[in-house]
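Backbone Fold Data
Goal — fold tokens
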Amino acid sequence: MPWIIKQAEEVEVDINRRTVSAFLLIIIIAILGFVCLLGGLVGTGLFLNAGDKIQKVDAIVVLSGDEGERVREAARLYKAGYASYLVITKTDNEEIGEDRTYSEKLMRIAMEGGVPSDSILFSEGMATNTIEEAHAVVLLAQKRNLSSLLVVTGPYHVRRARLIFRKIASRAEIKTLATGVQDSWYHPTTWFLSQRGWRQTISEVLGLVAITIQPELLN
């Protein structure tokens, strides 16, 4: 009988070892999965925020779409001597009440940031998206003989804005750079921690897919 008890104990130990090994394997797989997921999310944010090295240009372009952080960043760059002009784009959402327009609001913020009024330019027409903004800015650049631009936008919007502006501006032989707001609510490495971050990221990824499979949209 002792040998039966011993054999049973050995079987129990073997089962326990297999259980522990399976549990450890599951934990390792879960950790690796989490690391891969986290890496993918962070990588997506960094991919979208693929800005250029800032250089001196003829004009800094502020894309519409926020409450002022872009124009504040543009004013900071202007004050640092990166351009002689600051361009504000006009959109179809100009009317904001209080007897003023959205572009006027941005102009006031720029002036508060140290940009002289005679250095602020406005694009013509009312753009409804980034592609229309690019066309309007290029038209203004041609009229003003501006040969280089620095586009300032949200971090999540940098790659798409750069792609759009470069494609459209290159036809007019205008050099275009793009950069994201440094002190922004959107952080490329933590965007997935907020619902707003998910909305903006998904929207930008879909936008990139659209202009990639339909390049004629940039015509």
Summary: The first strand starts at residue 59 and ends at 62. Strands lie at 59-62, 85-88, 120-122, 148-153, 175-180. The longest helix spans residues 2-48. Residues 59-185 form a domain with the Rossmann fold fold (CATH 3.40.50.620).
